Amino acid sequence: MTKMKNASPFDENAEAYDRWYSEEPGSLICRSEARALEALDIRGFGAEVGVGTGIFSSMLKIPVGIDPSLEMLRIAGRRGIMVVRGVGESLPFREECLEYVLFAFTISFMRNFYDSLNEVWRVLKAGGYVVAGFIPRDSEWGRLYLEKKAQGHRFYKNAHFYSVKEVEKMLKGLGFRIIEYSSCLVQSPDGVRELEEPSSDLSKRGFVCIKAAK
Questions:
Q1: CA dist 161 → 89, 91, 121, 174, 192 (Å)
Q2: Within the chain, where are the H helices?
Q3: CA separation (Å) from 63 to 81, 119, 166?
Q4: Please, which pLDDT band fits residue 7 given cuts at 50, 70 and 90?
């Protein structure tokens, strides 16, 4: 697969991005985050929006992945995920066909997360749910990534980080009913030494997951 003209940083650095998850502390961080997501009992037929290289979908056994990056999708496909090129603001699914939609970190890199949630409502079956995993802006981890953004980091210079209250407000404003929370990364960004168990306590956590039903 050849690279696109004007490729995004995710296309240009897909292999390096993926390697981070296999090295420490990336591997510990990733597995802790996967446990936090897994605690929300994600099951049925669904899709991950912003699947990237497929790390989380492969760990959580999510069958379908959506992403705009061809290079990321190429790696995700090698992990056995059914990949589709697309964006969250215009999901390539018919109405009411999915039982869940997962966003793992993706919301910080979307042009318009609110519009994407509108699309999620359209494609979810009645009783289906959305899971949003993200780095809270006001956490120690969030402040680190805001600093990277300010420094013009290749991945984060155009990112937008949300607070928990902001994500809750968007979900509730569209009619979603929040049913469960999970979190991890109580360790500081420069002090990750061990795998973490998921917690329902959101305070001082660097990764928060919200599950909300249609």
A1: 18, 22, 22, 20, 21
A2: 9-12, 14-20, 26-38, 55-60, 70-78, 113-123, 140-150, 164-173
A3: 6, 19, 29
A4: low
Determine the residue type at 52.
Answer: G
Q: Using alpha carbons only, what angle is made at residue 101 by residues 99 and 102, rounded to the nearest 5 degrees?
A: 140
Tokens 């990112």, residue located = 159
For residue 66, count other CB atoms closer than 10 A to its CB.
22
Dihedral over Cα of 180, 205, 67, 81: its sign: negative
- Give the Cα separation of 135 and 138 in Å (integer): 9
Domains of the chain, earliest start first: 9-213 (3.40.50.150)
Which token pair is 137?
């802006």
- The tens digit of pLDDT for each residue in 102-153 reads 999 999 999 899 999 999 999 999 999 999 999 999 999 999 999 999 999 9
Q: Give helix 164-173 / helix 113-123 axis angle, nearest 10°.
A: 40
In this structure, the chain runs to a length of 214
Let me know how many helices (H) and strands (E) the chain has, helices first: 8, 7
The DSSP code sequence of 14-41 is HHHHHHHTTSTTHHHHHHHHHHHHHTT-
- Distance of alpha carbon 161 from alpha carbon 179, whole angstroms: 22
